[in-house]
Amino acid sequence: MKGQMRKVVIAGVGSSVLARDSGRSVGALACDAVRAAILDSGVPAQKIDGMSAIYSTDQPTVWPGYVTEGLGLSGITWSNCASPPSANTVTEGALAVAAGVCDYAVCYHAKYRWDSVSASARKDPYRKAAASSFDPALSHALVEAFGAPNGMIAAMQRHMHEYGTTRRHLGMIVVNNRTRAQSNPDAIFYNQPLTMAEYLDAPIAVSPLSALDMDMPIDGAMAVVITTAELAADLPQRPVYIDAVANGISGRNDLVFQAFDGFDSYRVLLKKLWDQTGYTVADMDLVNIYDGFSSLALDWIEAAFCGRGAGPGFLEDSWDPKLNTLNFLGRIPMSTHGGNLGEGRVQGFGHVIEAVHQLRGTAGQRQLDNPKLALVTNGNNPVNAGMILRAAD
Amino acid sequence: MPEEYSPRMNHDSAAYWRGVSAKTLLLAHCKSCDHWIHPPRACCPACWSDDIEHRSPSGQGTLYSYTVQAGPGGRPLILGWVELVEQQRLLLVAPLVDIAPDAIKIGAKLHLDWLPFQNTFVPTFRQENAQ
Fold it and tell me: Measured between CB atoms, does A161 come within 8 Å of chain B?
């Protein structure tokens, strides 16, 4: 990052189990992930002095006090509960370490299959969510009975109308992510590949989207440990540099009334990342694109690579029908862990963890050949985040 | 279901809800720069003026986008994003009534109508040439 800031790195990553029914509380999952990340980093627990979480997206998750008590972390002197999306925990933690207000920040996000998600979840007495919800524009009351996701679906309907986008284009995104999940044993859709024909046969949930276009609700939590490049020299893992971070809330962004402006807000955010680093998207070796809905990923791909409305043609050019994968600009893979659509819904935090694994060479059977740079995009309109991560030399 | 529908309102949206209960669409409008504002706000996002009034638009609009899902009794619930003629991208989100899902066309001309609901009304839209 620019200015008089310290160079920051991700020194450790961790995850809880990812499951439809984990048999654990959401707080326990958060502690699982934080514990795993701290152990992975090799930082002694009593040296952890920063903690960053998310207060809510559609339902509250767990605040830092819960986790510090749960793991007996007694040295926290910088804590933060950021607004969504999930990667804001990482961007906030990176800024705190860069500014020198803490040396070792653990940043986490937990997501649960709450009773609001489905009839089967409502039958489970352990899945009752707290009452409050996230309402960025305080306007949902005008139409709240209809639900915020409708806005995103209407935005896709409009995209199809304006640009000739079809379900097959969305299918390339979904099938890529499901294909990628086949080399991720932790993914919720591991051992469940999907073909384009199967995708196109899926029943429509709310036109133009099927259930396959929506990320699978799961129980899961993930965490990273951030420190300085200097301090990481004494730690066991190969560090991954955080070259740039940004959190976007731009333009008209009400989820229900103005869900049509995702592209513009993503474009503003990505420009900031390129301006900070001097990179372009063509310099990336991996792009982990947020995919809460496949249609959101389409907007992100347009903003990153090809411009508004050019997504359908760009996807056609990038699609490999033999391997069932997308390779952008002839070489850049997307979401090698499977994304939210393949790995499960921890709301994009898996995209950060996967970029770290790839850049430090711990991605196992799905390891890319010596990647140097990764773009992570996170969230949707109205709130989104992004970062550029770089492998150590 | 409560006997009396009681919307969640605040100082900005109270005028909208008062209008709804009287079958009148009342939207926030900036007197300083003639800008319509919906969802309602107390400060104009275009010119920062606090001089906000509430006015009735004509109720004419075109369909900007929509979704179709299963509503009560399995009947399709069609939700429209209607761009009112008064201003580009002045959108009202409301059910479309008396139209089959496969007959919907983005860009169709629509007009406002009211559906009784418990102790109040719901704004809806129907096709210009329907009925």
Answer: yes
Do B65 and A157 count as a contact with CB atoms less than 8 A apart? yes
Q: In this structure, is residue B4 part of a structural domain?
A: no
What is the rounded average pLDDT for all residues in chain A? 92
Amino acid at A284: M
Residue B1 lies in a domain: no
d(CA A386, CA A244): 8
Q: Is A277 on the interface with B (CB under 8 A)?
A: no
Pairing mode, if any, of strands B27-30 and B60-70?
A: unpaired
Instruction: Give the minimum alpha-carbon distance from B40 to chain A in angstroms, rounded to a whole number.
Output: 8
Its pTM stands at 0.93
Using CA atoms, how far residue A164 sits from A79, A156, A276, in Å, is 47, 11, 34
Q: Give Dmax (Cα) for chain B.
A: 47
pLDDT tens digits for A194-247? 999 999 999 998 889 999 999 999 999 999 999 999 999 999 999 999 999 999
The reply to whether B121 touches chain A by the CB within 8 Å rule is: no
- Residue (of B99, B121, B97) closest to B20 by Cα position: B121
Cβ <8 Å between B106 and A138:
no
Asked if the Cβ–Cβ distance from A256 to B93 is below 8 Å, we say yes
- Any chain A CB within 8 A of the CB of B29? no
Between A383 and A356, the higher pLDDT residue: A356
Confidence bin at B88 (pLDDT 50/70/90): very high
Task: Judge whether B3 lies within some domain.
Answer: no
In a domain, B91, yes or no: yes
Containing structural domain, residue B109: 14-127
Count of the separate structural domains present in chain B: 1
| Residue A142 at interface with chain B, using a CB cutoff of 8 Å | yes
Which domains are delineated in chain A?
Answer: 8-116+218-232 (3.40.47.10)
Whether this model's ipTM surpasses 0.90 comes out as: no
Q: How many helices (H) and strands (E) does chain A have?
A: 13, 14
Which residues of chain A are within 8 Å of residue B67 when distances are taken between CB atoms?
A: 150, 153-154, 157, 206-207
What is the average pLDDT across A42-56?
93
